[in-house]
């Protein structure tokens, strides 16, 4: 009985050992496995891609372990089979199409395919996933319509921005948990449907920016009671702002820039007490700016530029102590600059240009010790630059152009103390017959843009400019400067935009202008260094019309010397300026021929009109593939106008008043006209000389061998033995080949 009672115990311990040994293996395997349907869905997705580096493997023993693959997360449900609930493949360089097989991941909660190169339509199956909470397809090349039958009841974050979707924007009816909705930067058209606010009372962010939405600004956004951001900028919306918009007390960002909205700015804006950022610029708003900013004490950014606003600056703006940006340019605002700048310690940018403000510059502006950009251009301001500006050490961008300021020398002496001053624009001031200061200026060590154009200044190009070693843009055009162009001007290593046109400069063009480093190689000078949207108004003609460049990188690399009294010839060294886009030497007294400039591969503008040029137009200029403007009118050029390249796009006015020119854009050429096909003639002469050289070399070599054989008996015997042997070898080879050929032909004859 003892032995019989021990057997169950032994058997029990044996079973328990098996459980301990194999249970962990079984659990580990179940943790690594995933649902077969999910696995097939993932495989179908990968098969729709043209390129990916996901590293997923659907072959071998590891094929079922998809829960361990990069970008995939599974649930913590059944210990035997895991379901895929998350797919995060953002920024994985995926290319190709989105497969409908993803719709079979019916437990999916998060799908992030953003920042890839996926294209084509999105399958309707993706918009029917019942558990999906996050859908991010942003920054791809996806297109097509969003299906009207979309049903995403669990969706919280819906982001399809920066694609090419079209049609009506989705509304997501029944998505009661929706919090973030971003369809910006697509091609959606039609009216804005505020029915999306009826779907969810949790919406915090709505972005419709940069589409083609149209119609009147709709009512209904007031139903989005939790809304924090509303962005409808860069569309085509019209009409006035509805009253319910001003009930959104929780909104912090309101962006309506770049539409066609009209009417006045309602004083009900004071109800948006949590507003931090408001941009209503580039619309058609009119009337005065309501003086209600004492209720908006959280405001940091206020832009209403490019409208039709009138009246003065609302004094209550001074109550917004958190303000960093005030941008009210391009309106019809008037009055003095009457703000308490002492109460605005965080102000970094003040843009009031292109208005009707008058009076002097407020001397307390430098109290804003964080200010970096100040634009007061194109107003009616008067007086001198306040001496307090010596303490404006934070300022980097200053535009005062188009006012009535006086005393340039004092202005430069004050502003030279600003260590961070990078961009200075003083165009169209100091027009009371002032001199360009020639000495007493020592600062501006970090200045990259200096514009003192159209100020009717007399004097010469100031020598203190030689110390501005970081200068990239220099425009002192439309003045009355005399003297010669100094040699050192071309030695400013960073200078890539030079405009000294419309002065009375004399002498020849210095060779240093053909050695400007920034125009010969490298593009470091073209990198953006100016503040975004900081205006540089560059004078282009006497009518008052100008060109606006918003940042340094928008300036085309240029040398503009037109309308002076320069003499001499066009320097051949210009051909080395491969980065130059604009070369304008017109309206001078330049003579001689046009040199070869075909090496200026970036040239777009070549102005040579109204000079005394002679000779023909080099046909090599047809190799300038980017040349869009070419004018040699009013010279003494002769010969045939080149054909080919960009020359067919020019007009007859570009060649007029050159009696010797003929051909395209002119009169037909006579037979004895000087030909501009000099390159072809040169190539013919080069070919002739090549053949003559080859022939003379052959004859010389042959005579050298003959002389050696004539006077060296041992060489002569060896040469003839070699010749005899070579002849014998060739003879034997020919005879054997002939016999083999006859044998083959004879073997193929029919038996008689």
From TrEMBL:
Membrane topology: Single-pass membrane protein
Positions of the Leucine-rich repeat-containing N-terminal plant-type domain: 36-75
GO CC annotations on file: plasma membrane
This protein's UniProt keywords: Cell membrane, Glycoprotein, Leucine-rich repeat, Membrane, Receptor, Repeat, Signal, Transmembrane, Transmembrane helix
Stored Pfam families: LRR_1 (PF00560), LRR_8 (PF13855), LRRNT_2 (PF08263)
Spans through the membrane: 688-711
Signal peptide coordinates: 1-27
Intracellular or extracellular location(s): Cell membrane; Membrane
SMART domains, per database record: LRR_TYP (SM00369)
Family label: Belongs to the RLP family.
Protein name: Leucine-rich repeat-containing N-terminal plant-type domain-containing protein
Species in which this protein is naturally found: Ananas comosus var. bracteatus (red pineapple)
């Amino acid at each position: 009985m003892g032995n019989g009672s021990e057997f169950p115990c032994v058997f029990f311990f044996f079973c328990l050992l098996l459980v301990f040994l194999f249970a962990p293996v079984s659990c580990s395997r179940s943790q690594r496995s995933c649902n077969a349907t999910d696995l097939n869905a993932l495989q179908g997705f990968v098969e729709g891609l043209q390129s990916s580096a996901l590293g997923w493997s659907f072959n071998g023993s590891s094929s079922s372990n998809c829960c361990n693959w990069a970008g995939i997360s599974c649930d913590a449900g059944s210990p035997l089979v895991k379901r895929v609930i998350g797919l995060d493949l953002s920024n994985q360089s995926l290319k190709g199409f989105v497969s409908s097989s993803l719709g079979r991941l019916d437990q999916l909660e998060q799908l992030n395919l953003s920042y890839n190169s996926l294209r084509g339509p999105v399958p309707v199956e993706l918009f029917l996933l019942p558990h999906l909470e996050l859908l991010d397809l942003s920054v791809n090349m996806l297109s097509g319509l969003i299906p009207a039958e979309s049903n995403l009841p669990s969706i919280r974050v819906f982001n399809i921005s920066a694609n090419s979707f079209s049609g009506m924007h989705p509304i997501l009816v029944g998505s009661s948990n929706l919090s973030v909705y971003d369809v910006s930067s697509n091609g959606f058209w039609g009216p804005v449907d505020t029915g999306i606010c009826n779907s969810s009372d949790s919406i915090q962010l709505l972005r419709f920016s940069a589409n083609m939405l149209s119609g009147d600004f709709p009512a209904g956004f007031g139903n989005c009671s939790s809304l924090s951001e509303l962005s409808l900028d860069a569309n085509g919306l019209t009409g006035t702002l509805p009253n319910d918009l001003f009930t959104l007390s929780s909104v912090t960002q309101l962006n309506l820039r770049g539409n066609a909205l009209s009417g006045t700015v309602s004083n009900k804006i004071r109800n948006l007490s949590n507003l931090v950022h408001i941009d209503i610029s580039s619309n058609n708003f009119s009337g005065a700016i309501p003086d209600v900013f004492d209720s908006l004490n959280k405001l940091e950014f206020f832009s209403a530029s490019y409208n039709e606003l009138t009246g003065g600056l609302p004094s209550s703006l001074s109550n917004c102590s958190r303000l960093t940006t005030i941008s009210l340019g391009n309106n019809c605002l008037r009055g003095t600059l009457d703000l308490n700048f002492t109460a605005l310690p965080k102000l970094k940018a003040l843009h009031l240009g292109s208005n009707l403000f008058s009076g002097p510059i407020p001397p307390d502006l430098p109290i804003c010790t964080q200010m970096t950009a100040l634009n007061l251009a194109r107003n009616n301001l008067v007086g001198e630059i306040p001496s307090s500006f010596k303490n404006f050490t934070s300022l980097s961008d200053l535009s005062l152009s188009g006012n009535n300021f006086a005393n340039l020398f004092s202005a430069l002496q004050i502003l030279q103390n600003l260590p961070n001053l990078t961009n200075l624009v003083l165009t169209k001031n100091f027009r009371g017959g002032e001199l360009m200061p020639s000495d007493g200026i020592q600062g501006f060590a970090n200045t990259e843009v200096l514009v003192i154009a159209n100020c009717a200044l007399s004097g010469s190009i100031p020598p203190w400019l030689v110390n501005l070693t970081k200068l990239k843009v220099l425009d002192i055009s439309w003045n009355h400067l005399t003297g010669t162009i100094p040699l050192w001007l071309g030695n400013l290593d960073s200078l890539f935009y030079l405009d000294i046109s419309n002065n009375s400069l004399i002498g020849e063009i210095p060779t240093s202008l053909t050695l400007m480093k920034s125009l010969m190689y490298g593009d470091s000078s073209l990198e953006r260094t100016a503040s975004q949207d900081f205006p540089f108004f560059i004078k282009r003609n006497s009518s008052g019309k100008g060109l606006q460049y918003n940042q340094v990188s928008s300036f085309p690399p240029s040398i503009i010397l037109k309308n002076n009294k320069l003499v001499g010839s066009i320097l051949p060294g210009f051909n080395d300026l491969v980065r130059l886009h604009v070369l304008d030497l017109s309206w001078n007294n330049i003579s001689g021929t046009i040199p070869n400039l075909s090496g200026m591969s970036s040239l777009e503008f070549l102005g040579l009109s109204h000079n005394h040029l002679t000779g023909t137009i080099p046909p090599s200029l047809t190799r300038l593939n980017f040349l869009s403007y070419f004018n040699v009118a009013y010279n003494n050029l002769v010969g045939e106008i080149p054909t080919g390249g960009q020359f067919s796009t020019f007009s007859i006015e570009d060649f007029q008043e050159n009696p010797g020119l003929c051909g395209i854009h002119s009169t037909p050429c006579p037979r004895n006209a000087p030909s501009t096909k000099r390159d072809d003639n040169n190539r013919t002469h080069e070919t002739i000389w090549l053949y003559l050289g080859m022939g003379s070399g052959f004859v010389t070599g042959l005579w050298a061998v003959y002389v050696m054989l004539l006077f060296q008996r041992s060489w002569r015997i060896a040469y003839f033995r070699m010749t005899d042997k070579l002849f014998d070898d060739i003879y034997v080879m020919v005879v054997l080949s002939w016999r083999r050929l006859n044998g083959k032909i004879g073997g193929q004859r029919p038996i008689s």
